């Protein structure tokens, strides 16, 4: 448990005048026994911060950092929203995963504006990364940590068997647009001997959908599932590909999906930078060199993944917390975190660092993966505007609806169900 100084008013009154000053409302309530300011940092999964915390404490002897680390993003954010509702219990610095960012933005009044309390760090990040954490009235509630720029991964051996080009440069034209991607899928399916083109419909649909200017809501937070033709256009394109046999129909993160990498159940994968590690772990050593990644993604760039560091207004040491968050997300520290845990940087200077640009991946044929994904990150045009329930609709409405199509449900009926469920979620 993190140490706290919990002293009653009567106990404070009995103390010396020097001690009492620390008991008032303006005192440093989060202090250790030796008088250091304690800053709590709540994260999940692996941010690569353990050594950075020690480094910061060494250069700031008045600071003690206590980490609260959840194993997965879901329980971390459940805890976050519970404590936001309760009005107490949050850490000084709270990490937010981009999939939950729209919900946090709807509660932005409970977070500090880092432009006001933090150091001057303008223009550090890729613009789209900062824009996503900026409120309509211009408040910045999160410093960007990592990102997940998208490229395309594919099985070279399966491409060759189907008569498609397999060299990373030669396949770029196949992945130039979504039309060319699905057309290549038709060619592949005709000669693949039963191997699917992609893993599942939801993964493709999400990538397509997230490239649009707005998500399931417009910028006035009105649901636009029915009125935005781009959403139905993406649906039609993906479900048409499903009908042609392009989907392996494997639910993401299921045991069957994991096994699919090893058995060669599908030939292509929408591939954020962190997906290389997933593929290597699931496909295994016996498939080393069979998977490749190319510097291309249909219709330009895209992003899947990444987080932010926020400072809730509950923090008793908000300015010092903002200083720590700014330091952790500085270019130098982003490179150190990348070396430690592979978290891909969002800082402009970090994306130009030789340590990143020269990084190679032996499993994927020695490709300069750092340089490849740095180039892909710069192709992202803008941050998509997402309404409060955007993430819930993606995960709990459209993903299940697309799975139902893969399981045989009529496409139009599945669309009607998705629209109805989205309307319920938006209420």
From TrEMBL:
Signal peptide as annotated in the record: 1-22
UniProtKB keywords: Signal
Keyword check for Signal: yes
PROSITE patterns assigned: PROKAR_LIPOPROTEIN
SUPFAM superfamilies: Periplasmic binding protein-like II
Gene3D superfamilies in the cross-refs: Periplasmic binding protein-like II
InterPro entries hit by this protein: Bact_solute-bd_prot1, SBP
UniProt protein name: Sugar ABC transporter substrate-binding protein
Source species of the chain: Lentzea flava
């Amino acid at each position: 448990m993190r140490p706290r100084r919990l002293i009653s008013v009567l106990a404070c009154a009995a103390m010396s005048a020097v001690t009492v000053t620390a008991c008032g409302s303006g005192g440093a309530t989060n202090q250790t026994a030796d008088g250091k300011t304690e800053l709590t940092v709540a994260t999940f999964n692996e941010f690569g911060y353990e050594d950075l915390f020690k480094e910061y404490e060494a250069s700031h002897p008045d600071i003690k950092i206590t980490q609260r680390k959840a194993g997965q993003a879901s329980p971390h954010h459940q805890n976050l929203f519970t404590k936001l509702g309760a009005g107490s219990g949050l850490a000084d610095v709270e990490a937010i995963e981009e999939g939950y960012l729209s919900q946090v933005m709807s509660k932005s009044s409970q977070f500090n504006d880092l432009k006001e309390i933090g150091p001057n760090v303008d223009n550090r990040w890729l613009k789209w990364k900062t824009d996503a954490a900026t409120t309509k009235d211009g408040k910045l509630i999160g410093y960007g940590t990592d990102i997940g720029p998208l490229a395309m991964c594919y099985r070279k051996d399966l491409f060759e068997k189907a008569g498609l080009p397999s060299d990373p440069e030669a396949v770029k034209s196949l992945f130039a647009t979504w039309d060319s991607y699905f057309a290549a899928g038709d060619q592949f399916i005709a000669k693949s001997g039963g191997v699917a083109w992609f893993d599942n419909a939801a993964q493709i649909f999400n990538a397509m959908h997230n490239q649009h200017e707005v998500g399931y809501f417009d910028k006035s937070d009105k649901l636009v599932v029915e009125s935005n033709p781009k959403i139905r256009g993406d649906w039609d394109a993906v479900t048409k590909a499903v009908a042609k046999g392009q989907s392996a129909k494997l639910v993401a993160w299921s045991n069957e999906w994991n096994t699919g990498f090893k058995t060669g159940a599908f030939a292509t994968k929408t591939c954020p930078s962190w997906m290389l590690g997933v593929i290597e772990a699931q496909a295994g050593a016996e498939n080393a060199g069979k998977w490749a990644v190319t510097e291309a993604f249909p219709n330009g760039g895209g992003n899947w993944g990444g987080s932010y560091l926020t400072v809730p207004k509950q923090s008793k040491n908000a300015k010092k917390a903002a200083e720590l968050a700014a330091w952790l997300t500085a270019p130098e520290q982003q490179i150190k975190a990348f070396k430690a845990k592979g978290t891909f940087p969002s800082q402009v200077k970090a994306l130009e660092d030789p340590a990143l640009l020269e990084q190679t991946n032996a499993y994927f044929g020695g490709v300069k993966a750092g340089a490849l994904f740095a180039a892909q990150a710069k192709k992202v045009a803008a941050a998509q505007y997402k309404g409060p329930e955007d993430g819930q609709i993606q995960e709990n409405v459209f993903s299940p609806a697309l799975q139902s199509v893969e399981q045989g449900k009529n496409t139009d009926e599945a669309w009607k169900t998705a629209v109805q469920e989205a309307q319920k979620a938006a209420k």
